Amino acid sequence: MSEPKRMHPISIVLQMLKLIKDAIIPLAVGFIAFFRNLSEMFWWSPFALIGAVLLISGLTAFLHWYRFTYRIEADELRLESGVFVRKKRYISKHRIQSVNTSANILHRLFGIVKLEVQTAGGGKKAEGEIGALSKEDAAGIQQFVKRKEQRDTETDSIEDLSSVKRAGYTLSFRRLLAAAATSGGTGVFFGFLFAITQQLDNIADFNIYSIAFDWLLEQSLVLSILFVIGSLALTWMIAMVGTVFKYCYFQITKQGEELFIRRGLLEKREITIPLHRIQALKVEENIFRQPFGLLAVSAVIAGGGAESDKHSFSTILFPLLKRSELQHFLKEIVPGFVVETAFRKPPKRARLRYAFVPILISMLITGVLVYFFSWYGLFAILFILLTVCFCVLDYKDAGVSWTADMLTMRYRELSRITVHVPRKKVQAFRESQHYFQSKKQLGTVKISVASGGAAGSSFKVRHLAEQDAQAAADWYSFRS
């Protein structure tokens, strides 16, 4: 039994900053709404509000630090927290799947780390989290949760440990720049920018989009095009910087039955992934990388993880590989997912099913834009041509393949995605057919695997030949 420990005192500052960050938008809205007419208010009112916010957040952060303790007792990691309501969380080491650490600038300045504990039943958030502790204490907890039988620990020799095979890949600076330039993160930045401008529109008495559109109408066509191109180039560069910060010093190492990932420039992260937690392997080729034979590899993890994407709960295993390097990478890092694929493709009669709805929607959107924006809307005709190209690629890329114990699915979102799923990892298999598919003897195959989401992660291939969809269902149910 160990004595209860508190986090490093710097966690007070970290928690205070987190509270202010979470509340910054509603505080800004309230501040502007309340102090819009400053002539009728006391001149010191804004400063009083800021002082009150700092005082309350500082007091809350101090109480959070003072009431939070952690300790190791028997086979459990015990976390106790709560100011008014005391919460006790006991996590058995036999339930713990991985212990991940990260360190932002403040952490690194004081030589501490943030520790997150993931369990098999965990969701998007970590089962247990310690915001600031020394590297020695973090290493002690990581050593504690190593899931080895005691007899193995007693009989292991130096020769046994040295014989454990290690394999690893490091992302070079050249590859990092290529990954950043082709990441497609511009769309994510535009989404963030849209959310910010919407908040500004709600706070202020002017519409940013209306002002920008009116300004563009007053300019020449050449200047308008240059403005749009310059805006896209700027957002692309910002997205590149974000990708560089995220994947700088990326390294993946396999030792025994665990993968270790390190990455990050401003915030250094260390992630541990037991191989048995990998439910599916995804190979993603976005529209910028596919023509150059480049791809990214990620794994769908049971229970999510600190590094998981918010929607798919997948963890990047390597940000950028050449297509010719993929098989060697899989053999070295995740040998259980090496398969040769011979896809069963959708038949020719499925081409209309892939094209009808997307082209119809694009034509309706183009018609609306032409109606409201006159000749400017004619540029939307390019949208129809891009939609046709996408439908052709969607049809050509789709397919399913399987071996005795592995199912492979390929489909297209904006990127071409190939998913490898072991039969024993499939949680649910669904073969469906709607009315229009039945007229063409087509069907859809959809599977689900366990991940951090409540419904898990799902993958599907549409408009396969009816007999192929049925054959896949027979494979899963052992009827084949």
UniProtKB/TrEMBL annotation:
InterPro entries: UCP026631, YdbS-like_PH. Residues 65-143, 253-332, 396-476 form the YdbS-like PH domain. The chain crosses the membrane at residues 12-35, 41-63, 176-200, 220-245, 354-372, 378-395. Pfam families: bPH_2. Keywords: Membrane, Transmembrane, Transmembrane helix. The keyword Membrane applies. Coiled coil: none annotated. It comes from the Bacteria. This is Putative membrane protein.
